[in-house]
Structures
1.
Amino acid sequence: MNKFKHNTSKSAIAIDVWVTKNKTAELREECIEIQRIIRSDLNKIIDLTSNCKAEASKLISTLHECKGKNDKLTEELKLKTEQCNALKLQVDELNFSDLEITMEETDKEKEKASDK
């Protein structure tokens, strides 16, 4: 930002020297107006640059927060996936033959009850 101000000063001095050598009042007035416009535009650029820098800092902070949340969610997902896989293995190891026998016995008991 100081770079802009420094360059503006150099430009203003160069224009002043040129106008002073030529000693033209009309040119001097035009140069002063041009200098004013240049300073105004550069100040706007400096303000916009500052605003952009502040916004970029906010976005970087938000990005770091989101990355942290993403890492945490990734770890939770990994843990849940491991738990699901462990449960799937337990279910695969279950023996359902006892359940089928119980169901058959229940069906036979129902038939006996309906026969009575």
2.
Amino acid sequence: MYPTQDFIIQKPKRTPDGIGGYLETWSKFKTVQGYLDLVNGTNLSSLQNAFTEESTHLLIIPEYTDGITDEMRVLDSAGRFYSITYPDNPMGIGHHNELYLTYGGAVNG
């Protein structure tokens, strides 16, 4: 089996800006190990197609991680980020995660 890669799951964080508003930044939710793959089409059920059609990548996390939502994003080791379009817990049994992602660019680029 191929070795997994490290990914950081980030959640949005609102920080007061001192003048009555806030700045939205990202904070670490959890570091996970997984496999990232490019998605170029799908034959999934039509219920999921609305979420997966806009996805560019799929992240498989072999060890199930609870609490991942579509408001979060994923960072890879090269500093690229991906918005989570659909966090899936296949069959609802907590075996592994499948995260459908949309490529967002480089964090500092």
3.
Amino acid sequence: MRLAEVLDEHVVVVGQSWPNFEATIQGLLDVLVQASRLPADSVSITLEQVCQRERQSSTAMLDIGVSIPHVRTDAIDGIACALAVAPRAVYEVAFGLPISIVALVVSSVTLATEHLQFLSSLSLVLQSERCRSELKRASTAAEVLTVLQSFDGQGGALL
């Protein structure tokens, strides 16, 4: 699976901020619904699942300002991802620490291996300081996608 198969301009949000983690996830779930990647009737349960997962173990990498919340659900058949990038913060965690890049990943319950591979690959891309810096400077979804593709394994293959 290639990054471009999961992310496009319809699921990338640039410059938006939310007051907290839950509002961020709600906003990104709404983006997935608007892009026809997630059924509208599954938003409430998916929000609860993501928040519950986050309470068990945070997906925020505070030292680099990245969060990759994720959940496996029977609401979809494949893998969906919504990405938010902001120069300062998409949301702030405790003590005002900024999270500037959030990638919400929603995968089918039947894709356990693919889910983990996608998370691992996405995490590796977002751990690049240069990539994060370029993402935060991007002003459009198209620019974000170009940056990600340039850092995505030199050819776009995530899986």
4.
Amino acid sequence: CSVSDFSSMGIRVDEKSLTEQLEIAGQEKRSTLEYHQALLNKELPYTIGGGIGQSRLCMFLLQKIHIGEVQVSVWNEEILSDCRKRNIHLL
């Protein structure tokens, strides 16, 4: 018996995750944009998401074991290496 969680709840972005995302994407200059500045200066409330977990539902229907098989993202070398060893093909 296995259990699948299809909910997708939580804070979507905060100042720390925004900074990390901009660095990973090489887009640090975007931190000067109005929205980014407001978020970085804690002038906006955090957005909280809650949905059906579309990617998790796709994982279930397509019988995938890693979310990267149904959703594009940036993965660190450790995850990429582990997935290669397990013959998991990330998007």
